Hints:
Blueprint: H1 2-37, H2 46-52, H3 54-69, H4 74-149, H5 153-190, H6 192-245
Helix pairs in contact: 1-4, 3-4, 4-5, 4-6
Amino acid sequence: MSILKRRWNVEFLKSIERRMELVRVVSHNTHKRMVACLQGQIGTDAEKRHKKLPLTSLSQAMQDGGNQLGEESLIGKMMEMCGDAENRLASELMQHEMNIEKEILDPLNQLAELDIPNILKQRRQLAKLVLDYDSARARWLQATKSIISGTNTQSLTAKADSLKEEVDEAMNKMELCKDQLSADMYNFFSKEADYARYYVMLLEAQADYHRKSLTLLESVLPTIQAQQGEGTVSYCCVSEITTSET
């Protein structure tokens, strides 16, 4: 019965190990693809991240062009105002990506590169301790059999007692590792809903980012469009005067 129970435990642990390894692989792959979607450089501070964004480069180019053309130019004025809006959008993107990194990417990386590997390492350690226990127990059983058939009973008994201590020590190490592994595995699977939540948080963060970006655009567009309208009117007036003079 104990052999059947051990075999069942081994198969059960192997099935859990396979599932955890699968979770590790898919988490690692997803983390890698998420990082590839970021426009900023991961792990850098806010200022450096903002400077490296393509939107920031676009904003700078537009504002530089606006300064070169001057405010008397409608194109220059629009480039400067729109460039400022792009810079504000870049700030929203930077904040969004830093939030993604902190709330989603870092926990996923922790799960894939530390938490699961540590549990799997402990599982392999348990397998080694089980072998150590089996080996110690086999030597002890052989020693007890030798007492019955041997002549130097006192010496054989002392050896058997020493081996029994090794068996007890090996069993204690095995049980401690098993208890710790069971606790860690239980803790892992009890947090499965938290791990699944990361993917929902990604969509929520994206929705929040797009809402803020849309709000920003809607707040600046009326002013920009009004300035464009005034410039168009001024151009039409100049065109009419030029035409009448000719």
